[in-house]
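Sample entry (127 residues):
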Amino acid sequence: MERRVVESGESRYERRSRGSLRLPLQCRAQYIFNDVGRVATTRDLGADGIFVPTAKPLPHGTLVELALTLDQRLPTVQVAARVVRTVAEGEQPGMALAFTGRRLEEARGEVAAFLLGWMEREQRPAA
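Predicted structure, serialized as tokens:
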């Protein structure tokens, strides 16, 4: 998959060849698998999913329930997600979770609105 780093003011973000925008944002993510909840901090965030650093990524294809806290002032985004990529070793092991399920479009909209707001704030000149 081709990656392209885009510079916007002082912020840096990636646009993947599939067209989704990923920002290097840390948000609280709680995911539940087999009735066991785990809490992590995202490495990056996109309108289609997240990357969660973890020493023990779940197997590819695993479905989880995800609660994503984008900002303490906003409601938690609740959505199902599927493990679509795992990194078992190397610089930062973890897993990529793609949003899925019946709340897919709603979750994408909430995350996309948050990302656009974040990018607008980053592009404003410092006061």
